[in-house]
């Protein structure tokens, strides 16, 4: 699959952090309880890369609330979770400073398609046109 | 069996390539051990007591002869420790001491290598493959459509089912197409790769529950509603571990085509609200227990939104069901012998029928089939000198030959850690018996005491508190007399080396659990557990009989409990009451008293 998620360097993210229309959603918050009206970017946090709550938050924001702005992954963001992030609706990710962007690219190239639907392509493989 | 499409084949190969990339980055130092850990776990690679362990998925137990041969090759060529590692491991295991057997040979751990191990969740495990060779093994597996995808880690694990799926006379509907659809849906699911804890799904399609669905995170029972439509009863929140709980029914009837949409709702609510602060409280069972009806309401609300707002994207189409179901068409097994073949068959048959061991095998190892001409035959991997469920390279190759010759090239890994041949023609039974007996796989003990479940325990597993295998071996040694085994009758004896409960001790009529006290091996004994089968009754955890026992006491305790059964049992219409029926009728007290009386006097003094 094509890589569409934008990878942001940590310092670049820090520089643009004061934007007025940015919403930081806590890891345990219910995304369906918030208003996304007028919000440009929602930041979802990974306290540890093994904490998968933000994937469900992103899915709900995209699919249920049809949020069209930027959804950004922050926190413990590593190479091997970027594909999942894109698939669940993240559009940007602040890669942890010690990680090499070049290693990310081939992870996207590896699987052309997946079995189940996701935030990018709602239909599972069996419903996609052959 | 499910027939892999080009997409499926390529997917597994891509997964192997991805794993190699991760391994290489780990070895190069750009992917730390902590970062690599969940990635290798989701490919089935653990680091155990002495070496890595590989857990290979056998989806809902179905395995082909070609796949068995590759497992034999892995056993032979890769499951081989170097001499120094083996020597050091062996010395450490010897230091743990022997388990004495009254009137027999004391059991010491003798570490084996070059074999696969059938697990209770119908996976196959290897214990000695060096991690540096792990990517080679994944590529080898991918060449026969096998993998270790999600056999570990906090994700949706291998889907399990009834070993008689698709062939059982009491079947409502074949669960295998649904298992396969669930397998594909859950494979590399982007949202559910980092759940609070592991997540296991079992599907049962028969009237009898042979898949222990009450014990699963999600247990699915196929059934028909009053209108005759097919669907599922959905149970959520079963599990073993420290807090054994039977799943709660959250849906009495779910139309079959809504399966994926509903499971998505169940797991999304869990992913959002399951506890992540305490590993012992992170399974979905704790959430379901804590929230009760509120959890169910939330799942139903989420399901409604998936259907009404999201447009029910994962509704299973009839076309997809038909495509997958077409893979599971029963093979045609005809047997017409003439001339020399017929005469040879008559000789083999006459020989078998003259042997009382054949009769016993027919009773214990051969089960009925939907097709009246066919039988399901279990090859017993429960015998003295090999751990329960262990198969070496030669035995794996022989199993492949038997599957080819007698069962259309298909076998099944069973929950009880044996291999079952699902498509055996009744006229082939004498030939199969003779061939299996020659290979040492015709022990007529299926369902009896020595057909016990045991995890690898403290001989291999780094989580274990105590060894399982020497205990299993000691009990097996004590109960070698077939007449005695038949007299004791059907019984589930399950052994786990720690509270993670891989040996399903909670569900055993007799359960043995390894516990650690002051760095020493002790064993807790439970009685009256059930996996939910007809024999065992409604799924329930067993009850602890008292303080834990030393390894040496365990065989004595088992004997005392079995003697109590033989004293207490009744005969109804000439049929002897089973162990579990007697236990239920008279209650646990006499068994408890007998077990506690079997403690060694020294300990009572101390």
How does this model look, in words?
The complex is a heterodimer of chains A (130) and B (606). With 130 residues, chain A is α/β, with parallel strands linked by helices. Chain A has one domain (6-113): TIM Barrel, CATH 3.20.20. In chain A, 26% of the residues lie in helices and 17% in strands. Chain A is built from 4 helices and 5 strands; from the N terminus they run βαββαβαβα. Chain A has a 5-stranded parallel sheet. In chain A, strand 4 (70-75), helix 3 (82-88) and strand 5 form a beta-alpha-beta unit. Chain A starts with 5 loop residues before the first strand and ends in a 20-residue tail after the last helix. With 606 residues, chain B is of the alpha+beta class. Chain B has 4 domains: 6-142, no CATH class; 168-328, Sulfite Reductase Hemoprotein, domain 1; 339-438, Alpha-Beta Complex (Sulfite Reductase Hemoprotein, domain 2); 457-605, 2-Layer Sandwich (Sulfite Reductase Hemoprotein, domain 1), CATH 3.30.413. Helix content of chain B is 38%, strand content 16%. Chain B has 20 helices and 23 strands. In chain B, a hairpin with a 5-residue loop joins strand 14 (410-413) and strand 15 (419-425). In chain B, helix 1 packs antiparallel against helix 2 and helix 3 runs antiparallel to helix 13 (393-406). Chain B is globular, with a radius of gyration of 24 Å. The model of chain B has no long low-confidence stretch (mean pLDDT 96). The chains are: A alpha/beta (130), B alpha+beta (606). Chain A binds chain B through residues 30, 49-53, 55-57, 59, 63-64, 78-81, 83-84, 87-88, 100, 103, 106-107, 110-111, 113-118, 122-127, and chain B through 7, 11, 14, 17-18, 21-22, 25, 30-31, 35, 38-39, 154, 184-195, 260, 268, 271-272, 276, 305, 309-311, 313-314, 316-317, 319-320, 323.
């Amino acid at each position: 699959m094509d890589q569409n998620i934008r990878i942001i360097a940590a310092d670049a993210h820090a520089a643009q952090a004061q934007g007025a229309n940015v919403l930081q959603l806590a890891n345990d918050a219910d995304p369906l309880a918030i208003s996304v009206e007028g919000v440009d970017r929602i930041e979802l946090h990974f306290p540890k890369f093994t904490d998968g709550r933000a994937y469900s938050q992103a899915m709900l924001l995209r699919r249920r609330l049809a949020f069209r702005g930027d959804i950004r992954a922050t926190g413990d963001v590593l190479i091997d979770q970027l594909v999942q992030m894109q698939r669940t609706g993240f559009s940007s990710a602040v890669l942890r400073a010690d990680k090499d962007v070049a290693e990310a690219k081939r992870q996207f190239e590896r699987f052309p398609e997946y079995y189940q639907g996701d935030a990018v392509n709602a239909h599972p493989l069996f419903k996609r046109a052959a | 069996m499910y027939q892999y499409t080009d997409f499926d084949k390529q997917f597994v190969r891509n997964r192997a390539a991805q794993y190699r990339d991760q391994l290489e980055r780990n070895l190069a130092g750009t992917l730390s051990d902590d970062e690599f850990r969940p990635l290798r776990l989701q490919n089935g690679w653990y680091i155990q007591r002495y070496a890595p362990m590989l857990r290979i998925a056998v989806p809902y137990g179905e395995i082909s002869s070609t796949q068995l041969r590759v497992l034999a090759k892995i056993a032979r060529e890769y499951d081989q420790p170097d001499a120094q590692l083996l020597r050091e491991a062996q010395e450490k295991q010897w230091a743990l001491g022997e388990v004495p057997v009254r009137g027999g040979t004391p059991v010491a751990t003798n570490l084996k290598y070059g074999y696969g191990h059938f697990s209770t969740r119908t996976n196959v495990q290897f214990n000695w493959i060096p991690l540096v060779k792990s990517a080679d093994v994944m590529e080898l597996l991918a060449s026969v459509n096998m993998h270790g995808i999600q056999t570990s880690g906090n994700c949706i694990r291998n889907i399990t089912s009834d070993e008689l799926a698709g062939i059982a006379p009491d079947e409502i509907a074949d669960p295998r197409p649904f298992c396969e659809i669930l397998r594909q849906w859950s494979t590399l699911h982007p949202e559910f790769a980092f759940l609070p804890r592991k997540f296991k799904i079992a599907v049962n399609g028969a009237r009898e529950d042979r898949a222990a669905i009450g014990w699963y995170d999600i247990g699915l029972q196929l059934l028909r509603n009053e209108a005759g439509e097919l669907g599922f009863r959905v149970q959520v929140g079963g599990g073993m571990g420290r807090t054994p709980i039977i799943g709660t029914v959250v849906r009495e009837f779910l139309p079959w085509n809504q399966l994926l949409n509903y499971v998505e709702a169940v797991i999304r609510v869990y992913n959002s609200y399951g506890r992540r602060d305490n590993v012992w409280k992170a399974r979905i069972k704790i959430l379901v227990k804590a929230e009760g009806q509120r959890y169910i309401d939330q799942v139903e609300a989420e399901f409604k939104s998936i259907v009404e707002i999201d447009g029910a994207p994962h509704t299973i189409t009839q076309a997809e069901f038909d495509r997958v179901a077409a893979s599971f068409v029963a093979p045609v097994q005809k047997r017409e012998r003439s001339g020399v073949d017929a005469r040879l068959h008559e000789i083999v048959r006459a020989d078998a029928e003259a042997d009382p061991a054949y009769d016993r095998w027919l009773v214990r190892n051969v089960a009925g089939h939907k097709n009246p001409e066919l039988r399901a035959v279990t090859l017993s991997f429960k015998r003295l000198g090999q751990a329960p469920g262990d198969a070496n390279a030669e035995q794996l190759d022989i199993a492949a030959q038997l599957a080819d010759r007698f069962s259309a090239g298909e076998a099944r890994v069973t929950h009880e850690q044996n291999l079952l041949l699902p498509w055996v023609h009744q006229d082939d039974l004498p030939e199969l018996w003779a061939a299996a007996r020659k290979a040492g796989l015709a022990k007529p003990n299926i369902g009896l005491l020595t057909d016990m479940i045991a995890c690898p325990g403290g001989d291999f597993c780094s989580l274990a508190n105590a060894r399982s295998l020497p205990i299993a071996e000691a009990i097996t040694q004590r109960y070698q007399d077939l007449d005695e085994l038949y007299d004791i009758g059907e019984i589930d004896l399950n052994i786990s080396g720690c509270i993670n409960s891989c040996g399903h001790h909670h569900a055993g009529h007799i359960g043995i659990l390894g516990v650690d006290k002051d760095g020493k091996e002790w064993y807790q004994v439970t009685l009256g557990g059930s996996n939910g089968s007809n024999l065992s009754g409604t799924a329930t955890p067993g009850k602890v009989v008292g303080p834990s026992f030393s390894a040496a006491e365990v065989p004595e305790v088992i004997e005392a409990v079995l003697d109590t059964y033989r004293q207490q049992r009744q005969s109804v219409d000439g049929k002897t009451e089973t162990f579990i029926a007697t236990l239920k009728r008279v209650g646990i007290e006499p068994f408890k008293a007998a077990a506690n009386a079997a403690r060694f006097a020294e300990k009572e003094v101390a």
